[in-house]
From TrEMBL:
Belongs to the DNA repair enzymes AP/ExoA family. This is DNA-(apurinic or apyrimidinic site) endonuclease. The lineage of its organism: Eukaryota, Metazoa, Ecdysozoa, Arthropoda, Hexapoda. Keywords: DNA damage, DNA repair, Hydrolase, Magnesium, Manganese, Metal-binding, Nucleus, Zinc, Zinc-finger. One of its GO terms (molecular function) is double-stranded DNA 3'-5' DNA exonuclease activity. Its EC number is 3.1.-.-. Residues 451-474 are annotated as: Disordered. The active site is at residues 201, 242, 353. One of its GO terms (biological process) is base-excision repair. It catalyses: Exonucleolytic cleavage in the 3'- to 5'-direction to yield nucleoside 5'-phosphates. It is an enzyme of class 3 (hydrolase). The record marks 244 as: Transition state stabilizer. GO terms for cellular component: nucleus. Pfam families: Exo_endo_phos, Zn_ribbon_GRF. It comes from Coptotermes formosanus (Formosan subterranean termite).
Length: 605
């Protein structure tokens, strides 16, 4: 066996709906640390909410215009499919684009599925450690994307084209909901087999939304046909991802009416594909259907209760573990004997879901190179790093451009090396002007000669000298005007002690006059400050009465704790009306730590 084709004896597969990969990993280092902390070998992420720039040229056989034309054609024919996708065709790729730090992570190779029809929505990604590099990879379930034409695509489409129209396939697959990687496992010393990992993010649909529910059921059917075709090719299959349906009542915090619970058509589909050893009919159907998968978590933990993977963040339901289990790792029935463990990683936060990890005893064989669908082969990430010498050559060309516009010959050494000639008076004058504007010299802080002459220190009485000082301060406060005066226009005068007025001498100025001169201007300022302080105090009181701030939130009756404010978003007479409820998380009615039934309209406070 070559160095590249290393063998690993077990695999840790993780599925996690991250609810926006940017909210978890802000940069490349955080991406690397985050993946390492999960401790997984094949990490399947859903709802990445990442798009790819210029997706029309990279991602599919048809561009967005073709897709919108199909939408319009469907609308003209009153087809429901066209109506369903018309809301997605006009958004474009305005969301967060995939960057190199997220796509190319040291020690991993990644494979992304992007939403074509709506940005900031859906999207899946599979990260494989280098020791688990797949041999084949492909985007989507339909075979409509460019990756399905590659020589290392997964293939095996069964009768998809007979079951679905091209329009419907685009509607189902253009939301970026599936990525398939195909690995090689060693069965014996003489036999290798393929193992296909299908990473899916199934659509969500309320039962009362009939159109969206139909889309969800059709996606399930597409997934089933593709899985069956891959199984028929001889490959093992593992489906992992957000299935968006809980299987059994034990997987739901409040199953309520059991009859209605079991009537759900999505749940019926899960019942059909998940092997249940407790049901006698499964024994007869295994060979007929040839399509039964093991729920890895229930295979290892058949009776564990309150094992949920998704919680409503708006209701703070995770604090009371009031959720559902809708994230699954579904393993080929033939690999059941190799199942080692499966756990819900409930202590991992960052999303409204938590990861699920399965450990399977399989001998993986590493591919010698990544499939062509790998993100590291994207043109936008290939060959974009500059060499060190390119920075120097660029600097040289910029320097030549700069010196070619300078006065003089380009061959002049003084110009070529950025030295200024003494005879270049034009350049010198520009330099002086630039220096003057950049920093004020110390000479600019002295008084011009004509001002100094007019306000001589030795002439005039004390009042004249005071006015002269005020004039000096006014001139000093205008640095821009001083900067235009040449330094040669300043003169410096040495002050003699006789020129300074001595208030204790028996001169011409009496003590009373000195006192008035020193304090006549300060007394009005003191009085004005007192008035300003009174006015400031009164205005402050007025503003305090106007801006009193929000009222304290009411306290709930059940726990005597501050409530939280909510807003009605359902269309109706109370739309946008605010109300107060208990701040605790939603929970069972008999749980004292859960939210109480306190309710108060904000207008009734």
């Amino acid at each position: 066996m070559s160095e590249n084709q290393q063998e690993v004896n077990s695999v840790k597969i993780i599925t996690w709906n991250v609810n926006g990969i940017r909210s978890l990993y802000k940069d490349a280092s955080a991406m690397k640390e985050g993946l390492d902390s999960l401790d997984g070998d094949i990490i399947c992420l859903q709802e990445t909410k990442i798009t790819r720039g210029n997706l029309d040229n990279h991602g599919g056989k048809g561009n967005c215009k073709d897709f919108c034309d199909l939408v319009n054609e469907g609308n003209r024919g009153n087809q429901k499919i066209g109506a369903n996708v018309s809301n997605y065709g006009s958004h474009g790729n305005k969301g967060s684009s995939l960057d190199e730090g997220t796509a190319v992570v040291d020690g991993y190779n990644s494979y992304y599925g992007f939403p074509r029809s709506k940005s900031g929505y859906s999207g899946v990604a599979t990260y494989c450690k280098d020791a688990f590099t797949p041999f084949r990879a492909e985007e989507g379930l339909s075979g409509l994307f460019a990756s399905s034409d590659a020589v290392d695509s997964v293939g095996c489409y069964g009768n998809i084209r007979a079951e679905f129209s091209k329009m419907e396939l685009k509607e189902l697959d253009y939301e970026g909901r599936a990525v398939i990687t195909q690995h090689k496992i060693r069965i014996s010393d003489a036999e290798d087999k393929m193992l296909t990992v299908i990473n899916v993010y199934c659509p969500r649909a309320d039962l009362d939304n009939k159109e969206r529910l139909q889309v969800k059921l059709r996606f399930y059917h597409l997934l089933e046909i593709r899985t069956r075709a891959i199984l028929d090719s001889g490959s093992f299959v593992i489906i992992c991802g957000d299935i968006n349906t809980c299987h059994k009542p034990i997987d739901h915090c409040d199953p309520s009416d059991m009859e209605e619970f079991n009537k759900n058509p999505c749940r019926k589909w899960l019942n059909r594909i998940i092997y249940d050893p407790s049901a006698e009919e499964n024994t007869n159907n295994v060979n007929v259907s040839s399509f039964h998968l093991i729920d890895a978590f229930r295979f290892v933990n058949p009776v564990e209760e309150n094992a949920f993977t998704c919680w409503c963040t708006q209701l703070n339901a995770r604090s009371t573990n009031y959720g559902t289990r809708i994230d699954y790792i579904l393993v080929d029935l033939r690999l059941g004997g190799e199942m080692d463990d499966c756990v819900i990683m409930k202590d991992v936060f960052g999303s409204d879901h938590c990861p699920v990890k399965a450990v399977i005893d399989l001998k993986f064989v590493r591919a010698p190179k990544c499939p062509s669908f790998c993100t590291k082969y994207y043109p936008e990430f290939a060959g974009t790093q500059k060499k060190l010498f390119e920075f120097f050559s660029q600097k040289s060309s910029d320097h030549e451009l700069c010196t070619s516009t300078t006065v003089g010959s380009a061959d002049d050494p003084a110009i070529a090396y950025g030295k200024r000639k003494v005879s270049d008076t034009k350049l010198k004058s520009k330099k002086q002007k630039s220096d003057t504007k950049k920093q004020v010299g110390i000479l600019n802080f002295f008084q011009p000669s004509e001002t100094k002459t007019a306000d001589s220190c030795g002439s005039g009485d004390l009042d004249d000298q005071g006015s002269g000082n005020r004039s000096s301060l006014e001139s000093l406060s205008s640095l821009s005007s001083l900067s235009e005066v040449s330094p040669d226009s300043f003169e410096f005068t040495s002050f003699e002690p006789s020129a300074v007025l001595d208030p204790w001498s028996s001169g011409d100025v009496a003590d009373e006059t000195l006192t008035v001169a020193m304090f006549s201007e300060t007394e009005p300022e003191l009085s004005s400050c007192t008035g300003a302080g009174t006015e400031r105090t009164s205005s402050s009181a007025v503003w305090k009465s106007i801006l009193s701030g929000p009222k304290c939130p009411p306290k709930c009756r059940g726990h005597r704790e501050p409530c939280v404010q909510r807003c009605v978003k359902k269309k109706g007479p109370n739309f946008n009306r605010k109300f107060w409820v208990c701040a605790r998380g939603e929970g069972r009615s008999n749980d004292p730590s859960a939210r109480c039934d306190y309710f108060l309209w904000d207008s009734n406070r």
